[in-house]
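sanity check this chain:
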Amino acid sequence: MGCGDNTGCAMENAKEIVADLSVRARVLEASYALGQAVSRELDMETLCDLVVEHLSRVFHAESLALMFSDDEGAELYVKRLRGQSGEPGDTRLKSSRGAAGTALAEQRLVCLREGHPALRDPTLVEPFHTPASVVAVPLTAPEGTLAHPLPEPLPPPMGSRATAAVPLVAKSKVKGVLALTWAEGEAQPSDEDLYMLEVLAAQAATAIDNAWLYAEIQKLNESLELKVRARTAELDAINAELAATIEELKQTQTQLVQNEKMASLGQLTAGIAHEINNPLAYSISNVGLATARLSTLEEFVNLMLTLDDLREVVSPAERLERSQTFIRGLVGDERFAADVEMFEAELIGLSVKDAADHCAQFLTYVQVCLKRDLQRDEPMAAVRNLLERGYRGLERVKAIVLDLRSFSRLDEAQYQNADVDKGITSTLSIVAHLVKDRQVAIEHNAGLADPYPCFPAKLNQVVLNLLTNAIQASPPGRKVTITTFETTNGPRIVVSDEGCGIPPENLTKIFDPFFTTKPVGHGTGLGLSISYKIIEEHRGKIWAKSSLEEGTTFTIELPPRGAGRRE
């Protein structure tokens, strides 16, 4: 081969290389433009518009359709369509029909060019059927509507009708089909066109898959958000219900404590009522007598004032009339009844002036008698004495009420420093009547000099419960002792009796709720259980030791000062 032949070969090779580079440049340019347009677009509707608009600028085709497959891959429906005349229809394309269906089913590019016998098969080249939701737009996009410029369309080679369909495959999953048709006399797809179509279809498929995933993520996020909201609402409802239940349990517990306290007080009601009734009746009686004496004084004062008024009357006739009226009012007074009859008889035959003077004398007599009676009876001294005795009775009632208030400490419900031994003294006053009825002796050995941080009312309730149990368990003539003292572990309160004792099999159950050995109607079985909880609340301990026929000792050990409960 000569130099000329070599030169010709080189020229041919150079032309082929230039042509190939030209094709590759156009593909890269079109791919870059499409990539720039769709790389950041995740909205499916906008993305479909961009893909169709860019491809319509690249390929000179009669129509261009972007079709998606259903979830089962059985049908294709047109998402976007350019160049198709008429309104979109409602028919879907079976995946086994047409070039688009073949491309979907076989997952490869299908191209029917000039002279291909299949172009005469309507099942391969039938018009695209689309549902009513498909948007049909003109084939040529208006100038200036694209965000990124596209390369000019390939020069249209002359020829007859052709159809090309390429599957949109992303991550080995077919998303749909991109289909183009060329009419007779229009551009025919070259190999370079088909190569570019495959490249752009792959790029479009990736963008569509990303948008699809984004849409699914959005739906998932919305679904998750709805689930989170629903779950949050459900949890809020559960929390509210739990809070209500906890509050109800707290109220129930508080009510049980209060009920037990009232039950303990109820057992002492008769004694307390008796303790209050005696001084109260005494006071009422003395106040009643004092009231009667004051009535006598009031009567005397009124008579003295009336007599003074009668002496001021100048007219004898008026003075006589008013004096007679006053004197006749004394008929009901046994001291003056007989004198009034004699006085009435003495007035007969007297003149008005003489009768008025006689009335004045009689009124003076009445006044002297009243003063004599007043001096003899000494009503003011009697009233003073009666009121003093009534006051002493009310002081006794006041002392009982103060002991009750000191026991309950309604004004000291919070955790605070309190005189424990003073509270025990008040509690002993509450059980005084029970002590008398049971004929037992009480000994209080107070050994806590300084106030101790506690719930005073609750601690008094525990002491009342232990004392009541000890008194009820003690035979007449025995002694109940309550002792307080300091230890290195903290203050202690010890209540002991000389009763019948607790059987060993019951000693481990005495702090259990509703456990009681008392007859029905005489105990709730909550006293020691609540006492245990109260001492626990103080971070203290309570225990019992017992010997049959010798007695029982309950010990309360409170934590050292500063180590107990803090509010």
Q: What stands out?
A: The domain at 409-557 is CATH 3.30.565.10 (Heat Shock Protein 90). The radius of gyration is 58 Å. The first strand starts at residue 63 and ends at 69.
